[in-house]
# Entry
Amino acid sequence: MDDRVTRIVGLASQAENGFLEELECPECHECAVSVCFTHPADDEYRTWFFCTACDFQTRAQNSQKPQFFSEDRRRLDLEGRDKSILENALFKKPRPE
# Structure
């Protein structure tokens, strides 16, 4: 795994452990990354990472509700974007019958 991917995976690990502010950016290396969440559909969650010191941003698709998901960290503007992606996907996630 290249170094950048390793640092991004590290961001996800830190978010899973409750560290949601001032994370080190994998691009500029400033401690300026914040975490927010979306919940675009039933049983669908996304974790977003944004750096305030540079233009870095990325998101992770969660397999379950993030432990530190909260309404005050929910971004409805991004949620609409994630919902659109789900609705327009060629391959849909199977739903329980």
